Amino acid sequence: MNNVEHMKLWMFISQCQFWIILCTVLISLLLVAKAFFNLIKRKRSNYFKFLTCIIVANVITLLIILFDILNFSFKGTLVCKLQHFISNSAACFINWIWLCLFSQRFFILFYPMKRSSRGFFGFMRSGKKLVLATACFAILTQSWSLIFIEEVTMLTDDDQLIGVCERDVDIMSDFGYRILAIGEALVTYAVPFLLTIAMDIAVLYQTANSSFVVMSAENIRSENSALLHVNETVKIQSSQSIKQSNRRRHQAMRRCLMMATIQVSLNAPYYTLQLCDEIFSLRTSHTQLYLYADAILYFIYLSQFAMIYFYTNLLVSPRGKSCRQPPKMPLSCTTSLTRTEYTSV
């Protein structure tokens, strides 16, 4: 396929994508706004800080996409640099903040008695510190966009010039950009997604092999009270409370694992295609297939933003009864709360 045919196909797909992307972005903005207003009512939820930051980053990304599809004129190199930098930083921030959310839950479950506000455990229990560190990390790792991106002019089939944001080939070779693309894919997507799933699997394992024993008052009065002499931490609850706690715990674990899987499923296809294009130059060797695949997978990628509405409903309890950490006993919302704890001597 020559350059003229390539440009015609690219313009045709872009015109078809315009209304689809526009409608998807507007619907996503409405759902994100609804998710935010629902979340405001549940400020005491453990997940409030993380979900609020994800919502803000989603809005920024959607507005940049909206600006990009509505602006067909020349943007200028500075606008291209800022547009890529902000959108890439927001994407990196979102992926890592999901990891922070699940990591905090992991450490609360594995180390429920670590109450210090200092050191590593204090850092992992502080939502503000995790958000600030994630924001700094995203800005630092995505600062390459401010150097290697420029505006490139292209001639359409009707002899009109348009500006497109592309990499600056005068600064770095193709091999260098391939290495950069692989590094960005690992840092921004692969590592946080894999660690997020690993954290959820670890939580499942911890629940099945917990050193904590939850007992009802009936069991304590029975012959099973010998458990009190085992070198474990014993939690005393009513039988009904134990059943409710176990049900809530298993529901929360399934929800978190489901959300992590959905995030990977919606993000991985599009960015895998972009990474393969950087390495194997798919847009030049398999132009037609690449353009169609890019359009389809980009739509799948866009669908992730609307999912935040469903995530907020899954992560926080209905009717404002959000699960929260009690004073001086920062347990996870998936950990049973008890009146009395005994540790054997």
TrEMBL record:
Compartments where located: Membrane
Ranges for domain G-protein coupled receptors family 1 profile: 23-311
Gene3D superfamilies: Rhodopsin 7-helix transmembrane proteins
Keywords, sorted A to Z: Membrane, Transmembrane, Transmembrane helix
Keyword Metal-binding assigned: no
GO cellular component: membrane
Keyword check for Kinase: no
Residues spanning the membrane: 12-36, 48-74, 86-110, 130-149, 179-205, 252-270, 290-311
Protein name, UniProt field: G-protein coupled receptors family 1 profile domain-containing protein
Source organism of the structure: Caenorhabditis briggsae
